[in-house]
Amino acid sequence: MTYKSYVFSLTWRVFLLIASVTFLAFWISWSELYLIVGASFVTILVIINLYKFVLKRFIEMDDFFESVKYRDFSRWFVETKGSQDIRELHKGFNLVNSTIKSINRERQAQFVYLQKILEMVDVGIIAYNVEDGSVLWTNDSLLQTLDLPSFKNISFIESRRPEVYQELFETYHTQADSITLKMRQEETKILISDTIFEIEESSFKLIVLQNIEETLNKNESEAWKKLLSVMTHEIMNSIAPISSLAETLETNLKSSIEQPQENNLDSEDILAGISSIRKRSEGLMQFAKTYRSLNKVTQINRLPVQIDELFESIEQLLQPTILEKNVTLEFKVTEPNLIIKMDNYLIEQVLINLIINAIEAAEEKENPTVIVTAGKTFKGNFQITVQDNGTGITQEVLENVFVPFFSTKKRGSGVGLSLSKQIMNLHQGKIQLRNINEGGTEARLIF
């Protein structure tokens, strides 16, 4: 509408200018002095009017652009005065200002919302200009973690804590790294990661810090509680009968010494009692040796292993157990010529342990079956699964199955799965255990 009104007004004035110039030329050719003067006067008036008409609109636009230049969107242009096209032009200016103010309010609200979220999270965050070190944004959690007051430039940290500055701002951590920072003669475990991004022509670095000292201490404390609970249970199970049997033998010996005629000492009973004490003591020693085996594996020898050959070796090794238990054991490789980089002997030990567990879980079923499958996950990682059709695992057992010495078997040491988890950790992988909908359990080794 504004454009049409402006074009009409401009066209009308141009038409008047052409008409006045035409009449002026006509009267000049007829040499009519009075008419020439009149036509000249009219032409001048038309030119002045056209000039003012165009100039006024350029001034209005220049005024608007000036306010945009200085980001002054609070100005309101009068919509009730002036010509119709000027009013329409002012309405357009006001609409632009209102839209920009609305966008600014939304951005401000989003920024405040994001700022509040980042201030509430228990993770330290700082973004700064790589070139001059000026801080773009930081939150309270970072200041608390580093035990520093608010600062505007990272040079403040360089002057106060050069070692912290070197580790945080001079060293690049493209992946999450665990580092130890010394602050006020105390060492704090920090998880750090950073990235560089660009805004217009400036480069900024974003650093994320998380104090994992408390988390590690809490997890370590919980692990120790579980470990001590299981160890106490196992040790008490061995010591209680030893103590009871020793007390009984002591009582019999005292009675035999004090009243030899009335209490005959039975050598076979003493021998049997001592033998029981010896066996229990050997069991306790074996328990201690088993505990030591948890710390035995500290490094691995990773080499490319042909999975077909690994499965063939395990199948031959377990053939007597399969025949004895009457269990169907199947091996599947979904990827042709699948090769996984691993410590062949340790992973073989882990798989044998998992397969034996699966056989024992499924042996009482009508058609006991254990299926071992190797392939890739949807994320592209290598994976070996051991699946049985047994009765599954209760939630309580599932939560504690990787705790050292935890076992539901009468003859189990409770170390197998703990050792398996340690071996997978050394492979930078993980072991997972879950119940499947069809019934039974699935153990997954993810590399």
TrEMBL record:
One of its GO terms (molecular function) is protein kinase activator activity. CDD domains: HATPase. The keyword Transmembrane helix applies. Keywords: ATP-binding, Kinase, Membrane, Nucleotide-binding, Transferase, Transmembrane, Transmembrane helix, Two-component regulatory system. It catalyses: ATP + protein L-histidine = ADP + protein N-phospho-L-histidine. Pfam families: HATPase_c. This is histidine kinase.
